[in-house]
Amino acid sequence: MTTRARRGQLAVRIGLVLLVAAAIVIVATGALPLAETDSVLARIAPVLGFLLVLTALADVCDEVGLFAAAAAYVAYAARGRPRMLFAMWCAVAIVTTWFLSLDTTAVMLTPVAIGIARQTGARVLPFALACVWLANSASLLLPVSNLTNLLAVQALPAGQSFLALSAAPQIAVLVVVVGALLVLHSRTRAQPYEVQRPAPAGDRLSMAAAAVAAVGTGVAASAGAPAWLAGLVALCALWAVLAVRGQAPDPLAIAKRIPVVMAIATTALLIVVAAAAYALSPLIDQLAVEGNGFGELLGLAGASAASANLLNNIPVYVAFEPLASTPHPLLALLVGVNAGPLVLLWASLANLLWWRTCRSHGVTVPLVRVGVLGAVVAVLSVLAGTAAIWAMA
């Protein structure tokens, strides 16, 4: 490890310690009343529980070869046509984000995308960008697609379908983002590649069980089941199938990759943000968006997108949620914090995970160019998503 990398790790650890210390001081001094602290913890506990369970589920899906098999069959099905291959890969990234969350796409699919690009002689950057852009922008559809969605579900009126609200803006956002990706890829002038029949896959029953577990989690959560419980049941069922077939992964290896530190940091950060929001609550109440006018919705979506790029989308969602007093403004907020974080790395955890994955696989990311492209796409996609909400309202 280089000296620069060690310094980076040390800075991250110091920042984490300071963040946790700040949260402890806030709770201990009563800067955030105990009732408010309990409310924050009650909201975030099932969300972070789902994150931990889903990370394990995605790891098990990767262990059985589900993602690698999907990539191999996509490359074969495209029949040597680079544009078809890229379009099909975008579809894989979208579906993975819908059912296994944006972080899974950023971490699990990015190495596969890099491998496909190198294997077929294509430029790596468009494939890598497809992973991170679609991880963020395709995370609007289902509650399980993004942690912000799970928080938003708690704020919706009883009986309100999340999918009924999110489908239209999700389609609008994807039209913009996928269109931009296809234009970017078309400029690379990729050449036809040699079609290779996929190598014999692993155990098909195990991969089928993994696919059912992933899709079942998303469907169950969308139907109203607690997301963490749906994920846990799916994980246990998949593990049982693999155990019967003698293919259960090493539980310690899976446990080591569960992002416990990230969950602690997220909890501490939310307490800090909640304390700031509590102190500013009189002002926030006056700024609440109650109407469904295009200007009001776009203002909320644009402000949340800009703030997410400056800070991070999860605390920005928590801070802005009191401004969204009805379902349509709440959805505009989600468009901002989900589809907007395409400019700066720290705007979402998925961005940071993606960048780290690219670096570990020898891919240099031109951050300035990616940021400029991301800014253009973010503005257009937030506009499109907000327009869809306004038309629906």
TrEMBL record:
Keyword Lyase annotated: no
Membrane topology: Multi-pass membrane protein
Citrate transporter-like domain location: 17-348
Any single GO CC term annotated in Swiss-Prot or TrEMBL for this entry: plasma membrane
Entry's Gene Ontology BP terms: transmembrane transport
Domain of life assignment: Bacteria
Subcellular compartments: Cell membrane
Keywords, sorted A to Z: Cell membrane, Membrane, Transmembrane, Transmembrane helix, Transport
Residues annotated as transmembrane: 12-34, 86-112, 162-184, 205-221, 227-246, 258-280, 330-355, 367-392
Entries under PANTHER family matching the protein: TRANSPORTER ARSB-RELATED
Protein's UniProt name: Citrate transporter-like domain-containing protein
